[in-house]
Amino acid sequence: MINSFARALFLAFVAVVLSAAAAAAHPHVWVTMKSELVYAPDGSVTGVRHAWTFDEMFSTFATQGLETKQKGVFTREDLKPLAEVNVTSLKEYEYFTKAKVNAKKVAFTDPVDYWLEFTDGALTLHFFLPLKTPAKAQTLAVEVYDPTWFVDFSFADKDPVTLSGAPAHCKLDVARPTDPSVQGQQLGEAFFNSLGANSDYGAQFANRIAVKCQ
Fold first, then answer.
1. Domains along the chain?
2. Which of 23, 24, 26, 181 is the most buried (most CB within 10 A)?
3. Hey, which bits of 9-150 come out as E strands?
4. How far apart are CA 109 and CA 182, in angstroms?
């Protein structure tokens, strides 16, 4: 059974993909992302601001049937219901974002300031993910990945991660996963369908951010 995030977010897209030959391999959806780590004036980390751009095939199916004033043009208001589905569905999967402050896992609260835009045939989901408790971090580690690897995340080539308001002595490091292109073809669909939110299979494909403020 496809995980609930996929069912809610991809709607008709899932049915089409699963009927195609491409369904024999994973992932099914590709996201190019940019992330911003946000700091308060006192130097504490307050959260992560994400911008996730979905591949054109998903974007086309996700917007299929949406009523608009101008065909093929989607305003933020047109996309508001879909944005709501996105962030609601992401909760079970902890928003595909995990973080540690000073080597200890920290929790996020529900996203705020979320919205979708449609540009050049692609949907981009913007949202701010606040830390439950802002914290001063000598070290901050953030990982972004889908535990079921239905969705493949990759950093944008240019300026994939930025710091907003961080102390001047903080140093940023970004690590991309090794090329996973063959991995999904070596395992059957039944294996991936057995994975859920508590699976950690996708961790091997995590995109990692590290900040040191020492």
1. 4-212 (2.70.170)
2. 26
3. 29-39, 44-54, 97-101, 104-106, 112-119, 122-136, 139-144
4. 35
